[in-house]
Specification:
The longest helix is centred in the middle third of the chain and has 21 residues. Helices cover about 30% and strands about 15% of the residues. The strands form six sheets. Strands 3-7-8-10-11-13-12 form a seven-stranded mixed sheet, with no helix packed on it. The protein contains 16 helices and 22 strands. α9 crosses α10 and α12 crosses α13.
Length: about 625
C-alpha cells in the first residue's frame, strides 16, 4: 500500500483525520437496556479524536438513525459536539476552494472554524446517508440544522438529481494538499442510471503541476448481491482517487483494499453501533486514524472499547439431523435443548469480549439463527428468551428460525444450449426469426415441457410480422388453460406432473391448438371459462391500487375488494380496471410489452430443489 512513514514527517505537514461512518445516533433510544449504546460509542469516537490531536473528523453518513431525530437525540448530539469539538486549539487547515459552493446551510457560507462567533478546535466534516437524508417540508436534513448552528460542515449535498457534478473541497496544511470529495446518499438505482448515462462529473483541481491527495467519501451500497442496479461498483469512481471512504455498509472492513482496476484503495469503517442482529454487525467495530503526507497515506484502525458485545451464530438443522437424532421422538424438545446449550456457550464467549472500559455495556447481544426445513423442529422463541432476561440485552429475539428457501438459480433460468444455437444458425434457408426459434428448440438439450417449439415460433411471427404484442400472452394462456384441463382430467400425483405434461404435448398437435384458439377468439384475460376455471396472468399494473379481483365459478360475479369500498362500488372498480386493461392492451407502450422469454419463464412450475439462505436479518 502507498504508505508514508508519517512518524518521521514534520507534524506541520501531516493531515490527521479521524474517520467514522454510520453512527446511527438515536437507534433504539427508547430501549431501557440499549438506548444509550449509539451515544456511548459516538462519545468514545470524539474522545479518541481529542486524544489523537487530529486536525478534523470525517463522517461518512448516517450520523442519525432517523431523518427526523427526536429532541433527545438532537440534544445529546449537540451536547457531545460542543463538549469535544469546541476549544481554543488553533485549526491548521486552510480552505483554498470556494467555500460558499461547498458547505450547505452554513450561516457565513464558510467552514465553521472561520466563523468569528465560534471557537472550533476540531472541525467535523460530514455527508448525509440514507437515514438522515433531506426530507419533509423544505427538504432539509438534520445535518442542515447542525450546519446552521456551526457544529458540522455539511458537504456533498445534491438537489438536482438529473445530473451530479462533484467539485472537491481543497484543503492545505503545510506541504500536504487534500482534495476532499463528498457524495451523499442518492438512491442506488438512480445513481447507477446517472453513471450509465454519464451524468456524474467529478472534477479535479486545476493545478496540474501540484501534488494533491484525492480523498472521496461516499454512502452507497457496495455489496454486489443486492442486484445489478442496487449498488455502485467501485470501478464507477475515477482512477485519480487515492482513497475511498465507503459508508452505508455496516460490516467493518477498515483495512484499505486495493482496487487493481482503478489503482485506488477503499476503506469501509462500518457502523459504530449494531442496528441489526446480522453476521456483519457482529464483527469488531473500528474507526480509523488517517494520516496524509502529500500523496502518501497511512490508515490506522482504532478498535472501539465501548461497543456492546455481540455474538452471532448460524446453525443449519438439516446438518444436525443425525447428530441430534431429530428423526425420532420429540424433535422440538431436542432442538430446544441444543439451542439452550449453544446460547450458554455464546454468553460465555461474549464475556471474553469485555474490554474493561467503564462505559462498555456488559449485557451482550446474542443471535442464534436456526435454519430449518421441518416445522416440527421449531419451538417458542419468546418463551425461550424469558430465561435470559437478566443475562442478555435482547431476550425477545435472541433465537430466530429461518426457513431454508427453494429457488432456481439465475444460471439455470438463463441457460442457453450454445451448440444448438450454433446448429440453428447454420441451417440453410433460416432467414426468418421464427424459423430460428423453431430450429433452436428442436435441437436443444433442454426441450420444452409444455409448449411446442412451433408455438414459440408462431409467437415470434405474430409479434414481428403483425405487431401483436399480446401474442406471447395469449398463446401461452391458451396452452396453460388446455394443460390445466388435461391435468384435471388425469389427476396425476405430484411426482408425475412432468410425465403427464409430456403426454399432453404428444396428444395435442400444435396446429390444432392454434386453430382452436383462433377460432374461439380466446384472449388470455378472459375472466372465467365455462367450467369455472379462471386463468388470469394480467400484469399488476393494469389494476388500480388497492383493488383485487377474485374470479368465481359459472354464474357468480367478479368482485373487486378495496379499502372502504362496498359491493356496488367494488363492481364498478372491477369494470374500470377491465377498461384500463383493454386500453393498455391496444397500445404499443413498451411497459406493456412482454418478451418471448419472460412469457415462457412465467409459466414454469417445476423447480429443482436447491436451498439458499440470507446472511442478513434485516437492515
Amino acid at each position: 500500500m502507498a504508505e508514508g512513514d508519517t512518524a518521521e514527517q514534520d507534524a506541520e505537514n501531516v493531515i490527521r483525520i479521524m474517520v467514522a461512518t454510520d453512527n446511527h445516533l438515536g437507534y433504539a433510544e427508547k430501549d431501557a437496556v440499549r438506548g444509550e449504546d449509539s451515544f456511548t460509542a459516538f462519545e468514545e469516537i470524539l474522545e479518541m479524536a481529542v486524544a489523537e490531536d487530529v486536525d478534523m473528523i470525517l463522517l461518512g453518513g448516517d450520523l442519525f438513525h432517523d431523518a427526523q431525530p427526536s429532541q433527545n437525540s438532537m440534544h445529546k448530539c449537540i451536547e457531545l459536539l460542543r463538549r469535544y469539538t469546541f476549544g481554543d486549539k488553533p485549526v491548521s487547515l486552510e480552505i483554498l476552494s470556494d467555500q460558499a459552493a461547498s458547505f450547505h446551510n452554513a450561516v457565513n457560507q464558510s467552514v465553521n472554524y472561520e466563523d468569528p462567533n465560534l471557537n472550533i478546535a476540531i472541525p467535523v466534516f460530514s455527508i448525509h446517508g440514507n437515514h438522515d437524508d433531506p426530507s419533509g417540508f423544505g427538504r432539509l436534513s438534520c445535518l442542515d440544522l447542525l450546519s446552521a448552528t456551526g457544529l458540522v460542515n455539511y458537504f456533498g449535498r445534491w438537489t438536482d438529481l438529473t445530473k451530479v457534478e462533484i467539485s472537491p473541497i481543497l484543503i492545505r496544511k503545510g506541504e500536504s494538499k487534500l482534495g476532499l470529495y463528498g457524495l451523499s446518499h442518492i438512491h442506488d438505482a438512480r445513481l447507477a442510471r446517472l453513471f450509465k448515462e454519464y451524468q456524474v462529473m467529478i472534477n479535479a483541481p486545476n493545478e496540474s503541476d501540484e501534488e494533491w491527495f484525492h480523498l472521496m467519501v461516499v454512502h452507497q451500497n457496495r455489496a454486489e448481491n443486492r442486484g445489478p442496479k442496487n449498488f455502485i461498483p467501485e470501478e464507477a469512481l475515477p482512477s485519480f482517487m487515492h482513497l475511498i471512504i465507503w459508508g452505508h455498509e455496516h460490516d467493518c472492513r477498515i483495512d484499505p483494499e486495493l482496487n487493481v482496476l482503478r489503482d485506488f484503495y477503499v476503506s469501509q469503517p462500518g457502523s459504530s453501533v449494531a442496528t441489526s442482529l446480522s453476521e456483519g454487525e457482529a464483527k469488531k467495530k473500528h474507526v480509523g486514524l488517517l494520516e496524509i503526507y502529500k500523496t502518501k497515506f497511512h490508515l490506522k484502525p482504532l478498535p472501539l472499547q465501548t461497543v456492546r458485545p455481540f455474538v452471532f451464530d448460524s446453525i443449519n438443522l438439516e446438518e444436525c439431523v443425525d447428530k441430534l437424532n431429530l428423526g425420532e421422538g420429540d424433535a422440538s424438545t431436542k432442538v430446544y435443548n441444543f439451542a439452550l446449550e449453544r446460547v450458554e456457550a455464546m454468553i460465555k464467549q461474549a464475556k471474553t469480549m469485555l474490554t474493561g472500559h467503564p462505559k462498555q455495556p456488559t449485557l451482550p447481544l446474542i443471535r442464534l439463527r436456526l435454519l430449518f426445513s421441518e416445522e416440527s423442529h421449531m419451538f417458542n422463541t419468546v418463551r425461550f428468551g424469558q430465561m435470559f432476561l437478566t443475562r442478555v440485552a435482547n431476550p425477545a429475539d435472541m433465537v430466530k428460525f429461518d426457513k431454508l428457501k427453494k429457488f432456481r438459480g439465475k444460471s439455470e433460468k438463463t441457460s442457453v444450449d450454445k451448440e444448438a444455437m450454433q446448429r440453428a444458425m447454420q441451417v440453410d434457408n433460416t432467414t426468418r426469426v421464427e424459423q430460428l426459434v423453431n430450429s433452436y428448440f428442436e435441437q436443444a438439450n433442454n426441450p420444452l415441457k409444455l409448449m411446442h417449439s412451433k408455438a414459440l415460433a408462431q409467437i415470434t411471427y405474430r409479434m414481428v410480422e403483425h405487431g401483436d404484442n399480446d401474442a406471447a400472452q395469449d398463446i401461452y394462456g391458451f396452452y396453460s388453460k388446455k394443460a390445466i384441463e388435461h391435468l384435471m382430467e388425469a389427476l396425476p400425483d405430484d411426482d408425475n406432473i412432468d410425465e403427464e405434461l409430456g403426454k399432453f404435448r404428444i396428444s395435442h398437435r400444435v396446429d390444432d391448438l392454434l386453430k382452436e384458439m383462433d377460432s374461439s377468439g380466446f384472449k388470455e384475460k378472459a375472466s372465467a371459462d365455462e367450467n369455472g376455471t379462471s386463468l388470469n396472468i394480467e400484469p399488476k399494473s393494469s389494476m388500480s391500487s388497492g383493488e383485487e379481483t377474485t374470479s368465481r365459478g359459472a354464474g357468480e360475479t367478479t368482485v373487486a375488494r378495496g379499502r372502504g369500498r362496498g359491493r356496488g362500488r367494488g363492481r364498478a372498480a372491477a369494470n374500470s380496471a377491465t377498461t384500463r386493461s383493454t386500453t393498455s392492451r391496444s397500445t404499443s407502450s413498451p411497459d406493456r410489452q412482454q418478451t418471448l422469454l419472460s412469457a415462457v419463464k412465467s409459466g414454469r412450475k417445476t423447480n429443482p430443489k436447491t436451498y439458499v439462505i440470507s446472511d442478513d436479518d434485516s437492515d
